[in-house]
Write a structure and sequence with these properties.
alpha/beta, two-stranded parallel sheet, about 140 residues, 5-stranded mixed β-sheet, globular
Length: about 140
Amino acid sequence: MIAKLHLLMNELDHSRLEKLIDDEQYAKMPVAEALAERLNNADVVSPQDVPADLVSMHSRVKFRDLKAGIQLEKELVYPRNLNPEATDQLSILAPLGAALLGARVGQEVHWQMPNGKDAALVVDEILHQPEAAGELHR
């Protein structure tokens, strides 16, 4: 189960994520089902109205895993953009990726991993956010 954060997102990402989780390849994944629930309740705004401190698709985020006590830096990507050899990317269909979506700098996020263990992180910094960089129609 992913975090129960209220989701604010841009209309392009919202539309793309709806299509992604409707794809039969992903639709039955537990994370896709939880993400669908968040999308249904999301506030959808135009790309230029996305706050600069919010994690959106293709944001590069620095965050701390509160359970492991380590800091990570990842780019939140769609599965089709995921380079299997890259260590600095995170799929939106990974529980951690879905939990990060919509988080804001300074916010603590809690969710449950597939193995039933609780996980927690805090967003320290957004190093790159497409909307803030003017990449409104990427």
